[in-house]
Specification:
The chain has 477 residues and is α/β, with parallel strands linked by helices. The chain folds into three domains: 186 residues, Rossmann fold; 246 residues, N-(1-d-carboxylethyl)-l-norvaline Dehydrogenase, domain 2; 33 residues, Single alpha-helices involved in coiled-coils or other helix-helix interfaces, CATH 1.20.5.320. 55% of the residues lie in helices and 10% in strands. The protein is built from 20 helices and twelve strands. The strands form three sheets. It has an eight-stranded mixed β-sheet with strand order 3-2-1-4-5-6-7-10, sandwiched between helices. A two-stranded antiparallel sheet has the order 8-9. It has a two-stranded antiparallel ribbon with strand order 11-12. Strand 11 and strand 12 form a beta hairpin. The longest helix has 29 residues. It is globular. It binds 6-phosphogluconic acid. The site of 6-phosphogluconic acid (6PG) has 13 residues, from helix 9 and helix 12. The site of 6-phosphogluconic acid has 13 residues, from helix 9 and helix 12.
């Protein structure tokens, strides 16, 4: 009761004021983003379906620029026009909320979906709500810390949402003087870019896990492992994810917690969407798919490994790979992950009418997000002025880095041999190995045999060199 009176007092004080931004949804991300705005001097209205969540948030964070509402109509009336409502809710709830808001807003108002929504749903929503309000799809990255102190943000839509852009600029992360905030033309393009971000996130997390796990499996001292990871940072491989791995291992050295965490990985689905889309579009992204499947299989593997019927493999003890080898392996991993992601972006630009400037994508990922890494600056410069419609004609990463891949591939082969000999688990790094073999091996890849079999049993035809015509072979004489 006291709490309610306190909140009412805040409400009354500001009853006739209008606020610049409305935050709908006070989960971790919503709360932290609201506080980030307040820090920047922006007046904020907040609303949550469950009023008690709003009450406790306001109680803990009393500030004249922060006002909460129990009633959706009051929340909307409290906003400056055109209203800017930022949705930070679960993707499953977005449609219901948009529908509700469509009855209360005007066509010049903005509703920005900052959740991890599926980009094709967002694409439809741009159409569906076109005359009701301005819908903006927006990927936000950086977790709780990012939302509170500066996330990386990617906006989509057919029209540049200038007012939303200006407001989000106030809270976005910065790389030097530049904002980690980008607009990508195309309905759903913001959520598409976020999906790609998350897919690479899966692959990077899995590859780091595979490297560190190999070192553990080869009985390297934990302090030594941390030292090697630090060395990778010093050699120019620093990234947010590598940094948190070091933090986790250091914490574990003191508290011995890692081995007590159940060996099964969760996921919310954005990585899976990327694999699904890649299969639908015929653009293979094997490392991303391996990372998604590794998480999916982890529960199955864990139950198998604890089953009494399973006789576990025994590993041999080898020398752990040097930091030079790890450096090369991680480099090739990044190269392949970005190559795969770029092929998907190129497909979306060509076939969905998106105008995704990859140089800008890499720019906005340089800080604030989970993928933040030192190499992104170099990548953004490399793709400066690239033609979004013809992205890969002269920018194919694997081709471009071909000379340096040759040397690093020896390290990768050494690493893969260590993995095999020690029975460590490394599906993503093996996928990178095969991806590069597919591009560079001077041996047969074998697809002609696949075609021969298809023709043998189904008369699907084969192309003979130089003919350009589908031909059936009389296999059975
Ligand atoms: C980010 C993250 C974030 C992600 C969650 C859950 O950029 O801040 O990518 O948006 O969705 O961390 O991801 P999974 O549950 O799919 O691992």
């Amino acid at each position: 009761m006291i709490l309610r009176e306190l909140i009412n007092e805040v409400l009354y004080q500001t009853k006739y004021m209008t606020n610049r931004v409305g935050i709908f949804g006070l989960s971790t991300m919503g709360k932290n983003l609201a506080l980030n705005f307040v820090d920047k001097g922006v007046t904020v209205s907040v609303f949550n379906r469950t009023p008690s969540v709003t009450y406790s948030f306001l109680k803990e964070n009393q500030h004249p620029n922060l006002v909460g509402f129990e009633n959706l109509n009051d929340f909307i009336s409290s906003l400056e026009r055109p209203r800017i409502i930022l949705l930070l809710i679960k993707s499953e709830a977005v449609e219901v909320v948009l529908n509700e808001l469509s009855k209360l807003l005007d066509s010049e108002d903005y509703v920005v979906d900052l959740g991890n929504s599926y980009f094709l749903d967002s694409r439809d929503r741009h159409q569906r709500y076109r005359n009701k309000f301005n819908f903006v799809d927006c990927g936000i990255s950086g977790g709780e810390e990012g939302a509170r102190h500066g996330p990386s943000l990617v906006l989509g839509g057919s029209n540049f949402p200038a007012q939303v852009f200006d407001v989000l600029k106030l809270v976005s992360a910065r790389f030097g003087d530049e904002f980690c905030l980008g607009y990508f033309e195309g309905d759903g393009a913001g959520h598409f870019v976020k999906m790609i971000h998350n897919a690479i996130e899966y692959a990077v997390m899995q590859s780091l896990t595979e490297i560190i796990t190999l070192l553990f499996n080869l009985k390297e001292e934990q302090a030594e492992i941390i030292q090697k990871l630090r060395e990778l940072e010093h050699r120019g491989m620093s990234s947010y994810l590598l940094g948190i791995c070091i933090n986790i291992l250091e914490y574990d050295l003191e508290n011995r917690i890692l081995h007590r965490i159940v060996d099964e990985a969760g996921q919310k689905g954005t990585g899976k969407w990327c694999s699904q889309v890649s299969l639908d579009w015929g653009v293979g992204v094997p490392s991303i798919t391996c990372a998604v499947e590794a998480r999916q299989l982890s529960t199955y593997f864990n139950s198998l490994r604890s089953s009494p019927g399973i006789k576990v493999f025994n590993n041999s003890v080898l020398k752990p790979p040097s930091v030079e080898i790890l450096y090369d392996v991680l480099n090739l991993c990044y190269l392949c992950f970005y190559d795969q992601a770029l092929r998907l972006i190129a497909h979306a630009n060509r076939n969905l009418g998106y105008k995704i400037d990859v140089s800008l994508v890499f720019k906005v990922w340089r800080a604030g997000c989970i993928l933040a890494a030192s190499h992104l600056n170099q990548l953004s410069q490399m793709f400066h002025n690239s033609n979004y419609l013809d992205l890969l004609s002269n920018m194919n990463l694997v081709e471009r880095f071909s000379p340096s891949i040759q040397d690093k591939f020896r390290s990768l082969t050494h690493f893969v041999n260590c993995v095999s000999d020690s029975y460590s688990y490394a599906p993503v790094i093996f996928s990178v190995y095969n991806y590069l073999l597919g591009a560079f091996s001077n041996k047969r890849l074998g697809f002609s045999l696949i075609q021969a079999m298809r023709d043998f049993f189904g008369r699907h035809g084969v192309y003979l060199d130089g003919s350009g015509q589908l031909t059936n072979i009389e296999w059975k004489k």
